[in-house]
Amino acid sequence: MVTPPRSVSDVRNFLLFWSKVEEPLAGDVPAEVVAHGAACADHLSNWHPHDLELSVAGLLHDVGLLLVPGDELGHPAHGADYARPLFGGRTADLIALHVNAQRYLELTVDGYRVKPPPTAAFAAQPSLMTVEEAAAFQKHPLFRFALELRRADDAASEPEARADAEGIARQVARLTSLVRSLQRQDAAVSKEYT
């Protein structure tokens, strides 16, 4: 069971702590996991500047590797469980779907193979998606956005894409923007029903 953060400060401290750890943890180098997430979020911020949820999903998509070290195949679910209470269902669902997007592309795009990221030991890889699973995935309301997250994940796997401390700080600042946006939405909905 993953303990979700109570505040943006908790997430900021979590990411900043792990961004300084260069020693491998169950095959993953935490500093590289954080830098990779920030680089992924940078791509998404550039491609979709008004979609904070997508950018935050990019930043946090691999935190499950740090939350439950060694559970490569379970990391999307762990990351989603971590993000959901603070950053909402859409962000969490995108995190949960990023490996299914990989599986989908491996099935449907001739020659597509996920690039070994600088973040992981890259030992356990998911099974190939079946045609039936692909058809169901295409109908998911977040299908297109999950593919965008995967595209950014792949782009952030290039060695020169690793974000520096400034890039990490820039993306961590987006966390606060998303939480404020979600709070405003909640307040507007509450106001409608009072």
Short structural description:
By secondary structure, the protein is mainly alpha-helical.
Question: What does the model show?
Answer:
64% of the residues lie in helices and 0% in strands. It is mostly helical and 194 residues long. The radius of gyration is 16 Å and the shape is globular. The termini are far apart.
Identify the CATH architecture.
Answer: Orthogonal Bundle
As a percent range, the share of strand residues is: under 5%
The CATH first-level class comes to: Mainly Alpha
Number of helices: 8
Write the layout of secondary structure elements.
Elements: H1 8-18, H2 30-47, H3 52-60, H4 64-67, H5 75-108, H6 131-138, H7 143-155, H8 165-192
Which descriptors apply to this entry?
Hypothetical protein af1432; 194 residues; globular
